[in-house]
Each structure stands twice: as structure tokens, then as C-alpha cells.
Amino acid sequence: MTPRKTGRRSAPGPRVSARGRRPESGAAARASGSRPAASAPGTTPVRFVVNGAEAEVAARPSDRLLDILRGPLGLTGTKEGCGAGECGACTVLVDGRPVNACLFPALEADGRAVTTIEGLGGPAGELSDVQRAFVECGAIQCGFCSPGMILAATALLAEHPDPTDGQIRDALVGNLCRCTGYVQIVEAVRAAAARRRTAGGAR
Amino acid sequence: MTARRYIGRAVPRPDAPDKAAGRALYIHDLARPGMLYGKVKFSEHAHARILRIDTSAAERVRGVRAVLTAWNTPELRFGFLRDNLALKRDKVRQFRDEVAAVAAVDPDAAAEAVERIRVEYEPLPGVFSPEEALREGAPLVHETDPQGRPRRDNRVPLRFHHESGDLAAAERASRYVVAGTFSTPRIQQSCMGTAGCIAEFDRRGHLTMWAKTQIPFLAQRDFARALADIGLGDRDVRVVVPTLGGGFGSGLDTHAYEYLAILLAWKTGRPVKIVYTREEEFACLSPRQCAVTRIAQGCDAEGRLTFRRVEVLQDNGAYTSWGATYPSVMMVPVTSLYKVPAVYFDAQLAYTNNTYCQAMRGYGNPEVNWAIESNLDDLARAAGIDPLELRLRNCNEPGEVTPMGLKVGTCGLRECLERTAARLGWRERRAARDGTAGAEPAKRRGIGLASLCHVGGSGRIYRSDASGVVLRLDDFGFVHVLYGGVEMGQGLHSVLTLAVAEALGVRPEKVVIGPTDTANCPWDVGTHASRGAFMACTTVLRAADALRRRIFDLARTVFPAEAEEALRRHRKRNPDDRPPEFDVAAAAARTGAFDLRDGVLFLRDAPPEPWLRLDLARFLRAVHFREGGEMLSAEAFVDPPTQLPDFERGFGNLSAAYAYGTQGAEVEVDLETGEVRVLRLVAVHDVGAVLNAQTLAGQMYGALAQGLGYALYEEVLSEGGRILNPDFRDYKLPTAHEMGMPIELEFVEPNEPAGPFGAKGVGEPGLVPTAPAIANAICDAVGVRLHDLPLRPERVLEALRKRGG
Ligand code: FES
Ligand code: FES
């Protein structure tokens, strides 16, 4: 199965039911101590690569990828804006493709490579070119949508190094932002693409 | 004055790198040791008597630590009129009423417990529109007022009224009069980060609240009152504001969930966190007030306005928030947008069994601006005058005192109108005729514009309109800034940083903004009324001035010795150099001898020698580490020269400055589907002066997106008090697609003398005239006037059909 970004606005379809899910189960896991893999009853170990490092988490069948990222793995940069695949705040890359982590079952992450906002920068915490472009172009206000936006933009540029404005807007249509009106976000993506072309490659 | 180094440029924000890296901590990301998770049980009726609440099954759920109802907790009353209760006892008045609350060791247990609470109700007939609510014999939403006195009707006991000029004579003298009724919907602030808080008591009973709020100090007062109600009246309350995922007015009140977190924390002795899901936020967080505005305006044969009559009816919902004071701000445009010699304004609010409403960006202004600017176009048409000309003929002027008593300082409205028109190609296109053909035969294009005025120099809606700042210098040359206003995404911390750098004379990298925390920051009335940047810069200018004076004073004695030492080092390193002769002591003794720029202290008329340029950090250490040493800091607390108007009579100079702007739109209307496409937007705003060109543009673009959403898409739908579209699938926010049209921004800078660095507040204006500009363009395109927002295709079709038949 190819993980695909589900619940995107551009492609309304049957909604994976994640409604009414609490936004906090990740934090709950954290508060009650990290779950040792495969020891808690009713859990299955998920072995996957997160931001380039191997990870193993005991997940319940009902856990979403978002829960294990924000919870046991402490990667709170991935945000939950709706829990229903409608806002894109939870966007992460699974095998390089953007998915809504609030719809993606944790168990499905087994054997895959997941990139979150924390994994985009360099080893010493330098920002990636897309992150830098967001900062420099004023594409960030409250910042709640930013991790998801940046990951969606990163995936776009990997596929289309020289996207048109239309392609940029298409790629971001599943990511809602209430603050910016998207103008400076689109500028940032364009700027990152341009810089990449002149620098002759990523980062 | 020397040229500005930082203010006015386009500078990236200091908080952006951490936000880009996913390192900013929102309420959702915070946890406290031993923290419990709270969850609320909401009503299942819009109006019903509560007969019985059975919590026994909930209490048995594993991990549950407390289940609260009105029967086992002290009564906590809150709200602008204190007509709301944290837990409802006798009856529920809206679907989202809080009937019970649970705290458990994890969210799943809390959710399960809430599901197991059984409530028996006796349903009551409800009222779901203000008209219904005000009808004789309508069921009462509140049988008594907060003091227990019986109420006779559903009127909210708040009065907003204004009359000026001889209205009857003005009406008679009018050559043209046009009347209309316009409505605006409830909309959701839709912060991407949902609401939430953590309440924690220490062992002395002091409370710390991590709250998603725009009013940390008014919230502190509200929470302190709640503590008094539970018998902890002498305890301290500290409000800490984490990174906010948006505000837009949703944080101008304290909310029931916050009081429930306090009660649960108090009952369990553990920190308790409550965070709303998106669905809860949609269904249970107060949206923007909806309003119906009846308007009539008249003009003489030359198009001079003769009078304006505006009557507003607002659906308050079941309880009263600060948003109920919208009419206090409505008065500003009603009395003062364009010159009107006679004005009548009256606003009425009615309790209903709908969700109660609260403030949102613009605070009443978009509601009445929609009516004023739409109706003005109709008046122009009736009088046979071009809408732009009509507006120019009645344009506000600098220095004017308006019927409400607003003292207009600078006013760039004329330029805003002219520049918008020029960008739209107004005169050429309107001369051509109204409505031009679209790309396809069934499509027509048109252009329209609308203006606004708004408070731009803070706005006194509370007894104090103040803000304060502390600037503290450390041994390393950093400036630590403590400010009580709230960064909610708008860029307050950016402006604070630039203002400190500019006013004090340090590099922005040396400015560190401390956390917003009532325990450390000076009091602040709140981040509302577009006052954030205005007040931040005003207070910073004052504190920085005090600091500079102290620094220069100390420099008279400290600088010469430091310079001598520096010269000695310089000579040692550069034995061949012949530094010019300069009498440092004599120069330092002169008044106004010193300057501080980019963190370097120097004598104004000294030669540009490195040893005569003292690094601020070095200077600060010299001042600190000596006998009788001192650390430098300054505090400024500013209550601006604004008046709390008499709202029952509608007079008073609410703000220290007024912001103006004009927006223009070009649209294409599909005659077959009724669909409206906005082809371009123009926004020209009088901002006083630009502070940070990048964040200013961001505020405007974001506001335009909200204006577009308000105009075309957004509406909280409800039926019998139940919210029908509590998600982003059915509640449509503009996406990157809808915002794909070209947008032109332009800023008019008259340099407001009352404003810091010449600036006015501009957080709200960008969304105010967007809807009427679009509707006026639709009218230009297809000749129909639309009265109700949002401008959904069905409404456009309906209007077209009516015109056709
Ligand atoms: S949180 Fe996943 S799409 Fe909104
Ligand atoms: S920056 Fe606030 S939601 Fe996008």
C-alpha cells in the first residue's frame, strides 16, 4: 500500500473516522511514562525510522501516528488542528509523501520512514532551506500551521523543483492557515525553490 | 532626528525560527507533573430544566479522580454581566452549557466518564432569534438577573445610543434617501490552535493558570474572583500565556472551561488540563456576534450626506461576554465614517437559546460597515453620483471632530480612496458603463470599493486603557523585555523588538522578550482594539528614554575612565598608531554629549576612533561591578489619552488616533450559478507609519483572507440552537486556492503625532471593508444589491431572479 495523504480538501471522499478523538492521548502516554515496546497489554510494537533514527513504540490499534509522535516520541512539533484530516496541521512525511498523521494509523507506520518538522533541519539544529524561507518571507504568524505547511512544501519541492504558483497552491490546499492569508507562504515556497535552483540542489 | 535603523523596514520575526522548527510550545504541548485531563459534559438541549444528574457510573471509570456538578461544587459566576455559571444547576440555556466536568489520569478515561454521565432534563420551549426573543410573552432565557431579581423580558440590560444633529430636519432636507436592512452571520474565530488551559495550585493554595488568553490581567482578576468564591480569596493568581495558536478576539473573555479546570485542580490537588477538540471548539466556544442592521442614509442634490440612521439588533445568545459591547465600537464608523451632520444610532441585544457570542477582530465594525458601505453605494446610485465621488465629497479630514466627539488627528482617507480607485482603474472603467463582460457570456465583471475608520490609538472600553513595560539590561548587553500584552501571532514581539532596538539604540539580536506572565510583567488591559503595537511602542519609547538618560548620566563619570583604558590597550596593540588628541573628560561633561546606537556608546562629536566607542555590555559591567554599583532597568506604565465614552449617549473620544482605509475588489459573477469569483483585491490603508513592513503586510493579507471568508463563505449554521457545521469540511475557511487572486497592498503614512514612531494600530482594519467592497463590485457587475452575508451563490441567484421577475 502506498500511504497517501487522505482527507485532503482537494479530494473529498469518505472520511476516515477520527472524529471525537481526544487531542491529548499522546500527552497522556507521555505523562504516564513512555510505554515500553511490546510489554503493555493490547499494544503492538511499531518499528520505524523517525527523522533518520530507528524507533520502536508500543502502539494500540486505535493509536494514530500523531499520537505516538507527540506522545512517546515527544515530537510535539507535529500539531493537531482538527483530528479529522481537514486542516493539515498534522502533516508529516511518510516515505517522503505528505500524510495527515491524525488519520494515519500508528500500526501502519511499521517499517516506514517518517519525517516530522523536527527532522528537517541540519544536525546542529540549522533550519532547512524551506524553513529558512518561511522565516525570511514572513510566512509564519501564530505558527500553528507552520510545521504542516513546511512539510507539505518540502514534499512539493522534492517532486517539483520549479513549481508554478498554481502547483504551490494545489500542494497547500489541504493546509489551513487562519493568520497569513497564504500570500507570504506561497512567496516562501517560491523563494526556497529559487534558491535551491541557484544553489544547485537541496540545502 | 537621525534616520531610523530598524523601524519601517521589512524584518523577519524573532519568534519565527522556533515556530518553523516546531519548537514553540502551545498549550497542547505543555504538561505538568501529575497532571490530570479534564473534560466537560455539555448540555443535550438548547433550553431545559435539569432534573437529575447521575454521575455514579462516571465515578466508577478507572482513572477518574473527580466528577463535578453544580451540586458538589461552589457556584462560580462569571461573564461580562456575571450571568453565566461554570456549572449549570437549575437549567441549561444553550446546547453547549456545562453540566458536569471530569478529571482523569488520561484523556480516554475522562472521555469515557463523560459519556457515562446521565442527565435527565425537562425540555423547555426556546427562543432562537432576537426577534422571537423580544416578542411579547416569549419564553425567558433568564428568569432572574444575577442578583436574583425577576426579569420581564429577554433584553440584555446594556444600552448603546447616540443622537446628534437635527435628524428630522436633516431627513426633510435630504434630496435622496435610501434605506436597507443588512445582516451578518455568526462566524468562528477558527484559531488553528484550539482553546485550552492548565490549572495548578501550589501547596499554599496559590493558583497558576496557563491560559490561551489575550487578557492575562483581566483574566487574573476573574480567576481571583473565582478563588474568592471557593474560599481562597487571599491567594495569589498567576496567569502565564504560552505560545498562542491564534487569538482574533476569542481570548478576550474568560471561559467556563477555565473555571472548570480551576475547580477540578482544587478538588483533586493536581494540575488539570482541559483542551478543546476542534469539534468542541466549533460547538462550544463562542463565535462572533451576528447582527441585523437597519440603515437609512440621505444626501442633498450635490451628494453631501445629510443624515445617517442605524439600528442594530444583536443575537447575544444565552450569556453575555465582552462581545456584547460591540456597539461601543460600532459607534465609531456610524458617527464618524465620512462627514455626517446628523446621526441616530441605537443597538439592542437579546438573550436567546443560541450559543452565546464573543468578540472577534473588528469588534462590531465589520457588522455596521457592511451596512453603511453597501447602502452608500445605493445612495450614490439613487442620486446619480459616482460612488467614489460621493465618498470623496464626504471624506473625513485631518483635525476634524466628529459627531461622537472623536478627535481625528491625521486622516489619510482621501488618499486611500484615490489610490484604490487608481489601482482599480476606476474612473476609466466606470465611465465605460457598469458591468463589463466576463470571460464567458454568462459571466459579468464589476468593480467596487468600500472604506473604513477604526480606533487606531488604543481604545478605552475599560476603566484603564493602560499598558506597561519593563526593560532590564544585563551584564552582557542584552535587553530583557517584560510586557503584559499578548503575542498571538500578529507580530507583537517583532514590533517590541524593533521598538526597543530603535528607541534604546541596541541591535535587535540583543533584545529578548520574556514570557507573558502576570507575575513578572506590568499590568496590561489586554490585546484588543488594534492596540498591541501602538501601546508596546508607546511604552517602550518612554522606558527607553529613561534608560538612555540614566546611561548617559552615568557615562559622564564611567566613560572617560573606560576610554582611557581602551586607549591604553589600543596603544599596546597598535604601537605605531598616532591617535588624535581628544579631551574625553571635557567632551563627556557637555550636555547631550553621548549617543547610543547599535549597542555602542560614544561621544557625538568625538573622532571615529575605536577606543572612543564603548560596547554597551562593557559599560554595563563597569557600572555594575564597582562600589555602589547598579543594574539598569526602566519601567514605563502608560494610560493613553483616551476617553471612556458615555455609551448611553454615545459621546467621547474613544481612541488617541484613528485608522482609515479603502479596499477595492474586482469580481466576476456567474449568472447561471450565482458564483462570485474575486479576481483581485486592493487594500490601501492609512497606518500612520509602517513599523515592520513584513509583519504589517502579513496582518493585512491575513485580515483580507478573513474578510474574504466573511464575505463569501463563513457562517456558523445552527438550528434550534444546535450548531450544524462543527468542522472544517462544512465550515469553509478560505484556503490557498481561494486566496489565489492578485492582491495589491499600499500604505498611506501621514505620520500620526499621537502615535509611536508616527504609527497607528492596524490589526483589525484589514477585514472591515472587504465584504462591502466585494458586494459593491457584484452590484456593479450584475446590478443587484445583496443584503446578507455570506454572499453564497444561492443568495446571488435569488437576487438575480428577483430582479429579473
Ligand atoms: S489535525 Fe490532522 S488534518 Fe487537522
Ligand atoms: S500562522 Fe497561524 S494558522 Fe498559519
Overview of this structure, please?
The complex is a heterodimer of chains A (203) and B (805). Chain A is built from six helices and five strands; from the N terminus they run αββαβββαααα. By secondary structure, chain A is an alpha+beta fold. Chain A folds into two domains: 27-119, Ubiquitin-like (UB roll) (Roll), CATH 3.10.20.30; 129-196, [2Fe-2S]-binding domain (DNA polymerase, domain 1, Orthogonal Bundle). Chain A has a five-stranded mixed beta sheet with strand order 2-1-5-3-4, with helices on one face. In chain A, α3 (129-136) packs across α6 (183-199). The longest helix of chain A is centred in the C-terminal third of the chain and has 17 residues, at 183-199. Chain A is globular and about 50 Å long. Chain A starts with 24 loop residues before the first helix and ends with a helix. Mean pLDDT of chain A is 85; it is low at 1-38. Chain B has 20 helices and 32 strands. The mean pLDDT of chain B is 96. In chain B, the strands form eight sheets. Chain B has an eight-stranded mixed beta sheet, sandwiched between helices. Chain B is 30% helix and 23% strand. Chain B folds into three domains: 31-124 and 195-275, Aldehyde oxidase/xanthine dehydrogenase, a/b hammerhead (Aldehyde Oxidoreductase, domain 3, Alpha-Beta Complex), CATH 3.90.1170.50; 291-396 and 412-461 and 644-804, Aldehyde Oxidoreductase, domain 4; 466-638, Aldehyde oxidase/xanthine dehydrogenase, molybdopterin binding domain (Aldehyde Oxidoreductase, domain 4, 2-Layer Sandwich), CATH 3.30.365.10. In chain B, β12, α6 and β13 form a beta-alpha-beta unit. Chain B is α+β, with helices and mostly antiparallel strands and 805 residues long.
Summary keywords:
heterodimer, A: 203 residues, alpha+beta, Ubiquitin-like (UB roll), DNA polymerase, domain 1, 5-stranded mixed sheet, 6 helices, 5 strands, 30% helix, disordered N terminus, B: 805 residues, Aldehyde Oxidoreductase, domain 3, Aldehyde Oxidoreductase, domain 4, 8-stranded mixed sheet, 20 helices, 32 strands, globular, binds FE2/S2 (inorganic) cluster
